[in-house]
Amino acid sequence: MIVVIISVAGAFRKGKSFLLNFFLEYLYNLHKSQQSDSSLEWLTDDCQLHGFHWRAGVKRDTVGIWLWGEPIMIESVTGEMFAVLLMDTQGTFDNNSTYQQCMTVFALSTIVSSVQIYNVVDNIQEDALQHLSLFVEYGRMAMEQPHNFGKPFQQLVFCVRDFKNQEEYEFGENGGTDFLDNILQTNPEQPEEIKAVRELLREYFEDIQCYLLPHPGYKVAERQSFRGHVKDLRPLFREELKKMVPNLLGPHNLKPKIVNGKTVTCRKMIQYFKEYAASFDGETLPQPQSILNANAKLICIEAAHEAKVNYCRGMDRSTYGTRMMSEKKLLEAHIKHGITALNIYDKCPKIGSKEVRSLLLEKLQEDINAELERYKRLNEAKRVTGCASAMLACGDSVFL
Ligand code: GDP
Ligand code: MG
User: Fold this and answer.
1) What spacing in Å lies between the alpha carbon of 140 and ligand 1's midpoint?
2) pLDDT of 398 above 80
3) What is the DSSP string of 242-280?
4) What is d(CA 313, CA 331) in angstroms, rounded to the nearest whole number?
5) Does residue 130 have a pLDDT over 90?
6) Rounded distance between C-alpha atoms, residue 280 and residue 287, angstroms
7) Residue 348: which residues within 8 A CB-CB, separation 6 or more?
């Protein structure tokens, strides 16, 4: 099953969890309409939003990275089934966590998601661009590798809430595109680092979009008064959401998560999460090199797995049958299939540090040697069963 991961990140108390509930409302209704072959209805007058916890006030509610408890199955336009996962992140860069921890959560959620929705209020400030400099640094490094898989990051969507400058930029995607073009313009006074982000961000993300959303209405924004009833939303806000959400999550627009040039399955995703999380120790700012090494490790793990499977298949073929083979023949088969396996491993795309590759090569060699011991034991067992069947054969002839 192919995975799509939608993440929403940004400062706390800016309506991220609230936005995710519209995503849930859309995706569950889309799923229902696909299953029953009926037309899609969502965000109707009588609908009440629920799902991710949103709340007014200043106390932080979401800590770390949260995944919605189940994937929502959506049939893509090509007929493939996608498992869509929604991700809510810690209030990034809030006043309660260290800057480094926030950076880690933001970087990790961007790396593991197919779409990162960067939620900001009113404007895209310089510091929001500053937080993206890690991706520019990493992007540059990834593209300089002997093997590069194209753009290292997938989709980045700025979602500007409570946008006020409506005279200059219309709400929605079109206004957002013009607004973002303006923000990403460079001038000589800007600090070098932020200038690089402006110039290079588009090089390293496959797609960058921006949506401008109006204020949702006083019932939503006022403390405690909103209970999730859609009819309490400001109509203009509701209209814009009805356009934005299908644009991001509709069957035509869902983007499977891609790691190292390949789509990711649910099973592999768990391993990917673990590797990426391990490469950020949580206390220090994630280094581009550690992300690259996590990627390199994932490639090597997969190549080593393929190599080992290939070795075992070859050995199974060579040792097939009930007759025991000589130790010499067994070792010849081991050398032949062992060399093929090492060649498979050696052909994997080369990125990151050499240490990662040689560590996993050592592990592959150990695994293959362990497998050889297993084949030796199996072969030895044939001596016994071979004798037993020979005796049986003799016995048969005696009794006949
Ligand atoms: P999070 O911390 O970013 O996840 O924010 P929440 O989703 O918990 O929302 C915080 C508060 O902002 C809640 O009271 C929401 O009702 C309110 N809210 C949600 N969306 C918006 C918006 O677009 N504009 C304004 N002004 N308030 C919003
Ligand atoms: Mg939240």
Assistant:
1) 35
2) no
3) HHHHHHHHSTTT----EETTEE-BHHHHHHHHHHHHHHS
4) 15
5) no
6) 8
7) 299, 300, 302, 303
Q: How far is the CA of 54 from the centre of ligand 1 (A)?
A: 7
DSSP state of 73: E
Report which protein residue has its CA nearest ligand 1's atom 20.
15
- Kindly give the number of the ligand 1 atom that is closest to the alpha carbon of 88: 4
What does the pLDDT read at residue 83?
96
**Is ligand 1 within 6 A of the CB of residue 238?**
no
User: How many Cβ atoms are within 10 Å of 1's Cβ, its own excluded?
Assistant: 13
Q: Average per-residue pLDDT in the chain?
A: 86
Mean pLDDT of 56-84: 81
What sign for the dihedral angle of Cα 354, 356, 357, 361? Answer: positive
More confident residue, 86 or 356: 86
pLDDT at 57: 55
Residue 56 has pLDDT above 80, yes or no: no
Distance 228 CA to ligand 1 centre (A): 11
Under 8 Å between Cβ of 389 and 324: no
Instruction: Indicate if ligand 1 lies below 6 Å from the C-beta of 334.
Output: no
DSSP secondary structure, 322-335, as one string: SS---HHHHHHHHH
Tell me the CB-side half-sphere exposure of residue 365, using CA atoms within 13 A. Answer: 7
Contact between 299 and 148 under an 8 Å Cβ cutoff? The reply is no
Tokens, residue 389:
């069947």
Q: In the structure encoding, which two tokens stand for residue 205, read together?
A: 């993300």
Residue with tokens 């390199």: 296
Amino acid at 221: A
Write the pLDDT tens digit of every residue in 151-195: 888 999 999 999 999 899 999 999 999 999 999 998 888 888 788
Cα 231 to chain centroid, rounded: 35
E-strand ranges in 145-204 read 153-161
How much distance in Å is there from the Cα of 62 to the middle of ligand 2? Answer: 5
- Pick from 7, 8, 14 the residue to mutate for probing ligand 1's pocket: most ligand atoms within 8 Å of its CB: 14
Q: pLDDT grade, residue 397 (50/70/90)? A: very low
Closest approach atom of ligand 1 to CA 52: 7
ipTM (interface pTM): 0.98
18 lines ligand 1 (CB under 6 A): yes
